[in-house]
Design goal:
Blueprint: H1 2-5, H2 26-40, E1 45-50, H3 56-66, E2 72-76, H4 83-93, H5 103-119, E3 124-128, H6 136-145, E4 157-162, H7 164-170, H8 176-181, E5 182-188, H9 193-206, H10 217-227, H11 231-247, H12 255-264, H13 290-332, E6 339-341, E7 360-362, H14 373-379, E8 386-390, H15 397-405, H16 410-419, E9 434-438
Parallel strand pairs: 1-4, 1-5, 2-3, 3-4
Antiparallel strand pairs: 6-7, 8-9
Length: about 450
């Protein structure tokens, strides 16, 4: 009834972690890029920490979808278990037999499986959600899983995802070895008010809403305030607002509807962050001490003035010297751009470069790039701002752009044509076809 009233194909504010509805805020993009980079370079241990409701599970599902067909993955969410149960869950999710209770035998089966996958060129990635519930003993078992390795790389990639309690657990002295092995530590923070508005618009667009302005500006501002930028609370507010708006036959959700829904959900306004200053009582000074205190205050004020004058003089001298140094340096030589060398995109199915990661630079002592490096930098220019994706069944270019970039317009389509010169018909994609999609297309 609600979908028909607002002309929606599906519920835009559901509770299931659908990767199509993942909104790539700057924080989500950075976290996704960091995790991709860590898995691609076989760093072993990675972590993702976020408050409840921030969409970390949806982000993990997005990683699973992107690595589908390239890696053998397992997703564990039964974290209230002992070490033996964890290994059994892992073997079962990887498709291995786990009938026996012999802990050593289960380790041996896992080791043989990892070596077979390594010889086949398929990485194995394990995602452990709600990892803050794992006991210290189980976390130590997880750490020992990273010992499965060959002479040149780790055979198993482990992503620990959890709430801020996970970071607190890992900071304990007893888990120092595990904390030191976590190379990539991604984090998701609450959405600011402008991102809340874009988040709502993105979900409505994916759900097929044909128009704009379903929520008034006042309603959007109130959602950003009462939800505190947490996506799960945003979904709850919007879901109940659409239900109430449909019941009252209002085609547009107003701030009054949001206010009623927020009261029903017990989402009260923020309390003032700065405490009210208390009235302080000034002690009385006896007449005999007053001249002595005045003399002491005058002396301190004079010393402070002289000290600040000396500091200002030294700072001015340093600034003048630095300006003279820069002038002499710029006159001595001309700084030339360096050639950027990125990893070969053909050797890995996932993203080969991210703007949040440092690039490697090579230049000869004269400051000029080597002549043979210039074409290589040009060839890998696209990998800095794009990623590879293999077309799956029922994929369309529009759905991929909306789910990954949040929009699909002529600017995005032009960028995709530039990245894929051989793409003749964007409306016809073949299963197994590999295309490149931009990470940050121009507005």
């Amino acid at each position: 009834m609600v979908l028909d009233f607002y002309q929606l194909r599906e519920q835009p504010f559901g509770v299931t972690p659908d990767p199509r509805y993942l909104y790539f805020s700057p924080g989500h993009r950075e976290a996704l890029a960091s995790l991709f980079y860590g898995i691609e370079t076989s760093r072993g241990f990675l972590s993702l920490v976020a408050e409840p409701g921030m969409g970390k599970t949806t982000l993990l599902f997005q990683l699973l979808q992107r690595w589908s067909g390239y890696a053998h993955s397992a997703f564990l969410f039964q974290t209230q278990c002992d070490s033996r149960e964890l290994i059994r869950y892992l073997l079962r999710d990887l498709g291995l037999k786990c009938d026996g209770e012999d802990f050593v035998r289960m380790h041996s089966e896992l080791n043989e499986f990892l070596f077979r996958e390594s010889l086949a060129g398929r990485p194995v990635v394990i995602f452990i959600d709600e990892a803050q519930n794992l006991t210290d003993t189980v976390l130590e078992t997880v750490r020992l899983l990273s010992d499965f390795e060959s002479t040149d790389k780790k055979l198993l990639q482990i992503v620990l995802a959890g709430q801020p309690e996970l970071a607190q657990r890992l900071s304990r002295p007893g888990l120092t070895q595990l904390r030191q092995r976590i190379v990539v530590q991604a984090r998701l923070d609450a959405l600011p008010a402008p991102e809340v508005i874009r988040y709502i618009g993105h979900r409505l667009q994916v759900a097929g809403y044909p128009g704009t302005g379903l929520f008034t500006p006042g309603a959007l501002g109130l959602i950003a305030e009462r939800s505190r930028g947490i996506p799960r609370l945003i979904n709850n507010l919007c879901f109940n607002a659409l239900t109430l708006g449909c019941a009252t036959q209002q085609k547009q959700v107003t701030s009054e509807i949001i206010r009623k829904v927020a009261e029903d959900l017990s989402l009260e306004p923020h309390a003032p962050t700065s405490p009210i200053p208390r009235r302080q009582t000034v002690p009385r000074v006896s007449p005999g001490l007053r001249p002595l205190l005045q003399s002491f205050y005058s002396s301190m004020r004079g010393n402070l003035f002289r000290r600040r004058l000396f500091q200002a003089s030294v700072l001015s001298l340093v600034c003048v010297s630095f300006v003279i140094y820069l002038g002499a340096r710029s006159g001595a030589r001309t700084v030339r751009p360096w050639a950027t060398i990125q990893p070969d995109a053909a050797t890995s199915p996932a993203i080969s470069g991210f703007e949040s990661r440092p690039a490697r630079y090579i230049a000869d002592p004269s400051g000029d790039p080597h002549p043979h490096e210039l074409p290589q930098a040009s060839a890998h220019e696209n990998s800095l701002s794009s990623f590879s994706y293999v077309i799956q069944a029922n994929d369309t270019l529009r759905d991929l752009c909306v789910s990954s970039l949040g929009r699909y317009d002529h600017v995005v389509l032009s960028e995709i044509r530039r990245l894929n010169p051989d793409l003749r018909n964007p409306n016809r994609l073949d299963v197994g076809q590999e295309i490149r999609l931009p990470l940050n297309p121009p507005e």
